[in-house]
Amino acid sequence: MPNLPFYDRQVTTQGLGAGPVNLPTTSSDQQFLGAGTEAAARAAETITRQENDTAMQGAAFGLDAIKYGLFKQVREKQGAAALDSSNQALQQFDQEAEKLNQNIPTSRRDEWERLKMATRLQLQSSADAHEFDEMKRYHQGQFEGRLDLGIADAQTYWKEPILYNTAVEKVDNAIDTYSAANGWSAEQTAAMKKDTQQKMALSATQANIAERTKGMMNADGTLNAYDGTIDPDQLATAAFYQESRLSQFDASGQPLTSKKGAVGIAQVMKDTGPEAARAAGLPWDEERWRNDPAYNLALGKAYLNKQLKAFGGNNVLALAAYNAGPGKVNEWISKYGDPRTGAITNEDFIRSIPFQETQSYVTKIMDSVPSVPKTATMAAITDTPYFHQLSPQAQSSALSGMAEILNKQRQASRVVLDGVVNDASAALRNGQQPQVMPSRNQLISTYGLVQGGQLYTQLQNDEAFGNNVKLVKNIPPAQQQQLLEQAKPETGPNYAERLKNYEQLQSAISAVNSARNADPVAFGIKEGAVGQIDFTDLNSLQSSMQARTVQAGRISQQYGTPPTLLTKAEAKQFSTMLSQSAPGDALTLLQAVGRSLPPQGVSMFQAQLGENNPTYGALAGILAAPDNYLNTRSGIGSYVDYPLTVDKYIASERILQGYRALSPSAQDKKSGVTPITIPSDQKMQESFNDLAGDAFPMSSQERQRAYGLFKSAYAGELLNNPDLDSGDRADAAKSVDDKIAGKAILYATGGVLKYRGTDVVAPYGMGEDDFTSKMDNARAEAFKGLGSPSNFAPVKLPSGRYGFRIGNRLATKDGQVITVEIN
């Protein structure tokens, strides 16, 4: 344990074994000791001073960091946010500096306080300057914002004088307040008011122009300016646009001056100026004539109105006088006639003007004046208080800007109407109603009085031509030729146009007849003369086919084409339906159609169906034949009072079954149809020739069709005759069986009979005795007054009626083939 210290000995520690310290006892030793002590004291003082300096330096750096950090925060505040930012920064400075006080030695306190004060002054100076600048900028922004709002109000209230004037007063008050706060001179304040008022006036003028020019456009982008009349303001606007594009100054800023010396917007001549000024009720002022657009315009309008009054409101004469002088116009009236009295038209008077410049001037203005809406004339722009607050250059610029808008709208309307007119012309010339038909005023608004009127007249002519084109679609060829002959032009005015119409009508007639002859019913459907076939169900099909028969007969007479029941597409559709149907369904469909049609309809249906498939065509004719009252399967149908030699239902079944068995389609094979073999074509042809004889003397096509049905009927009978055993069928497949062949010719033709020694195809299923009796009576009646018909043999025609032949010639009466119907 350590020993406690005593006066006469050093502290010792047994653990360390320290010995005593021997103090000096001599004077020299004491001097040395005193020097060491002083050195140690000086060293301690130096160390203390260095520590104090270090503390002061650290505090000074901290103080600067606080100053710069706070000033950075101050600088980040702008505008109104900078208000009181300097005081807030100083308060934070004091708080942060106070925290540094505890590190300052007592001996350096005064120095520290002086440093704090200096640093605080630096921060205050910088922060105050920033706050002042920002508040100044803020107040300037407020001021400029008030001016901008005033300009915007002028744009809003351009047609509300009271509200507009209120906006001007508010702006003037703002300028007064700001100028007072910033020590402006009276001259500076007045200049600012004038400049701002001109900006407001320009804003109001531009809004006025935009609103008025916007109203002249239709929703489709075309002009809607012309209402059939022209007032003096419209005429003046169009005239001065032609004169100067509504500009007082040229590109260099000098007064716009023509080669002849005419000046400004209205291009008023100096010699005319005083007279125009008197007419306007204004003193003549050459300086204003050159440099004041409103003054120049007032002179021009007054002088033009004077000419209008002098020439009785005639626009053409007034414009000519404005350009060439009233004396010249009176000379021309004396020489060419006065359009005011009807002695000459305005158009002819313009063409008679001997001065090319004046003629062109009047023509261009009269063409452009309809494009100027009554609501957007120069007067609507210039007759406002704020327009006169504009500088001359601004007035000129505003008016020329309006002229440019009008011109662009006119051009844009022309782009739209060019296409509309072309489409309308094409539709009208084709006999159709155009989707959009431009009005006369609409055309004149865009193209001018002359061209617009001509275009409208042309559209009327196109419509008349189109009516002829529409007419030729619905009249026989003979009437078409009469119409064409009437349209044949003779030389004279507009010969080229009339010749073009004639040639196009000729072409239209050719195209119409080509289309009608190619597919009459399709043409009739397209023109609305024929309705569609309704394939929805059998009832709908029958009713629409009945209506079609009537329509087909009518268009046959109209078009001068052979009677046709179906379009080519419909005939193909029928054939496809029958081919894809089961035999029973196909026969049901054919019978339903046949029963709904009169004989002529059946004949047309049979012929057209036969073009796609002769077998189906023939079956349609067979199933349309009358039922015998003793041999019918239905309570519906047409009946005859004589017994039939063939059952048309069995005949149809046999023919269809045989047809499909001879050449089964993929669909037939899927349905279980088994291919069948019949005797060679040579053997079959020989058998058919023996049975048919000379019953088809005038049509190899009809004979070939009957032969095809004969083969199908033979195959069908071979398949289905219950009296045949397998051996009989095998023999009949190799060699013609006469019994089967006899039935086949009966099924295929309805019966080949002998009439007075001549082979003839009878009405389907009619016996020879009945046919002979009926034919004798019909032939005698047909040849009454023509001599004996004994040299003429009856022949069945494709229509189902009978003609009378001698050799290869049919008997005629009054140029028409003699035919009879046997039923």
TrEMBL record:
Keywords: Coiled coil. Belongs to the transglycosylase Slt family. SUPFAM superfamilies: Lysozyme-like. It holds the Pfam family SLT. Residues 233-338 form the Transglycosylase SLT domain. InterPro entries: Lysozyme-like_dom_sf (IPR023346), Transglycosylase_SLT_dom_1 (IPR008258). This is Transglycosylase SLT domain-containing protein. The keyword Aminoacyl-tRNA synthetase does not apply. It comes from the Bacteria. Residues 83-110 form a coiled coil.
